[in-house]
Amino acid sequence: MFSLEAVKWINDQFKQTNELTEKTLEYEQKYMQLFYLKPLIDREMLQNSVIKPFFEMASENQFKLYLHALPQFQEATTKEQVMREIMNGSVVAVIQNEWYLLDFKLSTNDKVNNTSVETTIHGSQLALSDNLATNINVIRSYYHQPSLCVEYVVKGEVNQHKVAIIYDKEKVKNGVLDTIRERLQNVDKQVVSSTTQLNNFLNNKRLSLFPQMIMTERPDRIVYNIAGGKVILVVDGNPQAVATPAVFFDYMSTMEDNYHTLIISIFLKFLRYAGLMISILLPGLYVGVTSFSPEVFRTELALTIAGSRVGVPFSSFIEVLFMLFFMELLLEASIRLPKAISATATTVGGLILGTAVTEASLASNIMVIIVSAVAISTFVIPVNEMAFSIRVVRLLFIFVTTIFGLAGLTLGLYVLIMYLVNLDSFGEPYLQLYTSPKNRSKWERKT
Amino acid sequence: MLNKQIKNRLGFLLLLPLFILLSGCEFKDIDKDVFVAMIAIDQSDEADKPYKITLKLYEPSSSFKDAPQPTYSYLTQAGETLSEAIRLMEAYSDKELQFGHTKLIVIGEDLVQADKSKEILDFLLRRPDIQMIAWIAVGRPSAEKIIKMVPQGETSAYPELFNYFDHTGTESQYIVTTYLFNFRRDMKAWGIDPVLPIIRINEKDSHFEIDKSLIVRDSMEPHEFDPLNTSLYTMLTKGTDRADLAINEDDEYFIARIDRLKTKHSVTIKGGNKIELDIKIKLYGYISESKKNLDSKDLPFYNKLLKAESEEKFTKFFTDMKELGFDPLGFGLDYRSRTLHNRRMSKEEWEEAYRNAKINLSVTPQLKSTGSIQ
């Protein structure tokens, strides 16, 4: 099936680049042609496992059998596949019109990183790497089940990235898996370069605020999610995986919750939900209570706030927005800045700006306390994606409270809950407490 | 599909301006409000303006550490009605008067004696920003004098007078705490009469004295409780959980410190408009002061003395109340709650029956120790 024409076709395809190496080996009635992209392959490996044996083997037949036996060997079916594999770092050996695909890819990005986004005190400190094969290696070596399935899809018309769909066949919900496969089929993008991009591509919505897939870099979380019947998507060249279907409460848990004793993890969870409520509601509450119904405060507090607002030229909501704006700028700046400078930026922004603002009475003392409390409590939310969503929700609440007061804030909270109830992540209701693994009846499991 | 989307968008566009119009409360910054700490309502000297209102206003301060001395300002105005006086006062102040933090309403004694409490109550209840959990008290000689006094050692932002009533500061058996909502409820219902504390100032103008109280009923002359009766009243209504009772009998003199009280009261209906009042009181405690050496072995004897003494005091209290026609504990309410409306005595019949009721009072004393280690 592979004739000289095919060889010519492949040569044509790579005509633009001068990197395709074509090598002809001939020795004692043995004849072999090799095609590969030089920068992609491990030359030493090629030398040791193909070229050297070629000269040592007695007959061509023996060498063919040897190539078949190599672990890097892959069956070649179509010429398009061959071309793709060459681009992925395979070596094509052609012996008597028989094609042998050998994966000699040289990877420089296969070292696992340290956790940097989801840091914990307990548990593993290692995250995923940028290399898909390594990542799958990591996942497989933590999850020993024959039912663990890995499917590959190539996405991105231009950059042709490999996307792996990883799940436990025994535990995954088939509906979810089908939806993901179907939606992945429909992804029509030129470049797919990040796992979290899939979040936007797969949720079928133009405007979405809350993430429907949970991003993680921790292998233990991936394994935990696979065991819980979730589907993991990993994109090559990305140290993050996404797990789906994700419910709201997944975003509020860390892997450490499982590593602590029960009471401690309940306490930590309480802290986290309190932080969530504070970061959503506190700025809105400040506006609502100071400007609409000051009788909610204790008398001393009302008087202190009234006193500290003396001389502040703005209304309470401008004051809140003004301070929050600077806080958001500070957050954004400290992400973008090199690590060495970002510490300085937070000091200048947080400490100096905070005191200077109150001294110039551009904002009240209480306001500075509120903004810092809000900033700190936003950091308590363990999954970064949710923290970003919460920052936006907070602004909406300030807006609603400025117009409608405390009643507006309460109704706004209802609207948020209604919105969350309405959301679903790949068929799973967003506000359910946990995703159930697979809807199988009990007797079925016994048999 | 598209049609539906357009409909949704149109609906949203229609709703948006309506939302803007909806704003319920008005937006007003907190530094444009002035908070009223207390309201004093007195009878004025002018005939056409019978009410004189004095407001005690907080002066806001950014740091109470810098201003340890309390600062208040006062507004006084007489008016034909309470609303009129307050409306005039709003014109005297540069900021909006906020009654949301008003914790105490003091009514001048003249007004209470003149049986005006119902009218005042009406105003206080209708004004939405006056909290129903405000305390209400009677000021002697006048309410204005009470709220204008700043006792020595008062800290800013929390007037000392509030500590008397909020059960976080002093807890005395002589202080009656009456909330506005309670006062209103007891005032409107027949079968129970509200009791208001009387706030007085001592002769040197240095502190308050709150140890008396006043029982009020619509179209009846109020009756004043002396400190003893006030303390019996708070004990009976569980307004206090700590009380002292002095026992002076048969050359024994000691003070029983009660630290737990249980009271039960109910009406027993005996046919033919005859009723009996059952009161059961349990007193737990110890002896806190004595002029003699006491022996633990004699505790049953001291208990007996306590029983005799307290029964006598309580019986006298109830007999007095019965004869005057006041009902501080709400026997009438108890009666009404347990009879069907068509078999119930009329108000007049009940009052007659109450006056002639028999009192069955029993005290169970539970003195646990003589208070000293032996």
Automatic annotation (TrEMBL), chain A:
Membrane topology classification: Multi-pass membrane protein
Keyword hit for Transmembrane: yes
Transmembrane segments: 270-289, 301-325, 362-383, 395-421
Organism superkingdom: Bacteria
Keywords: Membrane, Transmembrane, Transmembrane helix
InterPro entries xrefs: Spore_Ger, UPF0353/GerABKA_families
Family to which this protein belongs: Belongs to the GerABKA family.
Name of the protein in question: Spore gernimation protein GerA
Lineage: Bacteria, Bacillati, Bacillota, Bacilli, Bacillales
From TrEMBL, chain B:
InterPro entries according to UniProt: GerAC_N, Spore_GerAC-like, Spore_GerAC-like_C, Spore_GerAC_C_sf
PANTHER family given in the database record: SPORE GERMINATION PROTEIN B3
PROSITE patterns referenced in this protein's UniProt entry, alphabetically: PROKAR_LIPOPROTEIN (PS51257)
Keywords of this entry: Germination, Lipoprotein, Membrane, Palmitate, Signal
Pfam families: Spore_GerAC (PF05504), Spore_GerAC_N (PF25198)
Domain Spore germination protein N-terminal span(s) in chain numbering: 28-201
Family under the similarity heading: Belongs to the GerABKC lipoprotein family.
Subcellular location: Membrane
Lineage: Bacteria, Bacillati, Bacillota, Bacilli, Bacillales
Bilayer disposition of the protein: Lipid-anchor
Protein name: Spore gernimation protein
Transmembrane segments: none
GO BP term, pick one: spore germination
Domain Spore germination GerAC-like C-terminal: 224-371
GO cellular component: membrane
